[in-house]
Amino acid sequence: MVNQFPQVLTIAGSDSDGSAGLQADMNTFQRCGVYGMSVLTAAVAGNSYGIFASHPMPLDFINQQFKVLTDDFVIKACKTGMLTDTATIKTVADNYRQYDLGPLVLDPVIITKHGDMLLEEDAFETLKSELIPQATVLTPNYYEAVKLTGTEIDSPADALQAAHILQKMGAKNVMVKGRHTSTTQAEVTDTVLLEDGTSFTLSAPYINTTHINGTGDLLSACIAAEIAKGTSIEAAIRQAKKFVTAAIADELFVGHKYGPVNHLTDYNFD
Fold first, then answer.
1. Torsion over CA of 210, 26, 123 and 87, rounded to 10 degrees?
2. Which pairs from 50-55 meet CB under 8 Å and 24+ separation?
3. Which residues on neighbouring strands pair with residue 77, listed in sequence order?
4. What is the pLDDT of residues 72-130, one digit of tens each?
């Protein structure tokens, strides 16, 4: 039976230390029980201390990756990660329109969890116009949601308002990830708005650790994997929240400074 096993695609950069990017996505896919493949958009030289060099992939190479994968595999869902610049974003958007890649989980890698901008302004605008309207699930962090909507978010009610704005931009389902305000806060609360208009919040204990690299990658990759397995959007989001919480809580001591979350944590997907 050819292509019966659930297959999922990540469209992302390579993070050389394995803590984030397509390496984190592939680790997540394996833990979720799906077959993962990748379209490489950039290569980053980094470790737990930081990023020291990066190199975008040529656009014709990105196009060729999409072609050869869709010529052979049946991709049930895909997710995005680092898309680097305007030209790359347009190329990815064009390929997503051209090929059947299943539902798109858009992790808008715009601003870090610490508030540092990762995209130039023109690339940011291109992401808004080209990819957000194609997103089945959009998963911005606090800073990205503020930047995308131009609103302040100080409460779950504010986050829900922001989610409605993002839904009006074209995203079908939106998960606004909660802000990490201090090391003394008790919980982190995410706000979810589904396509049918229903909404809910997901809270988990705040865990004071420096081993949080790749949390956004794990979350969005898990959502995509669960969708590919036939799970509903709501159930996929709830499952991903539980998995990422477990992966942060079960610290994996790799690297000297900002380490990865633990994809190997003993979490039961059943």
1. 150
2. 54/13, 54/84
3. 8
4. 999 999 999 999 899 999 999 999 999 999 999 999 988 666 555 677 888 899 999 99
**Residue from 176, 170, 171 nearest 140 by CA:** 176
Nearest to 165 by CA among 178, 153, 182: 153
By the 8 A CB rule, do 192 and 199 touch?
yes
The residues, any chain, with a CB within 8 Å of residue 40's CB and separated by 6 or more, are 12, 13, 14, 22, 57, 61, 62, 65
CB 149 within 8 A of CB 166: yes
Q: Say if CB 81 and CB 25 are below 8 A apart.
A: yes
Buried b / exposed e over 108-145, threshold 16 CB at 10 Å, is: bbbbebeeeeebeeebbebbbebbbebbbbbbbbbbbb
CB 40 within 8 A of CB 11: no
Q: Which fold has domain 7-249?
A: UDP-N-acetylmuramoyl-L-alanine:D-glutamate ligase (3.40.1190)
With contact defined as beta carbons under 8 Å apart, do 151 and 161 qualify? yes
Q: What residue spans define the domains of the chain?
A: 7-249
Give the angle subtended at the CA of 131 by the CAs of 262 and 121, to the nearest 5°: 90
**Joined tokens for residue 28:** 């997540």
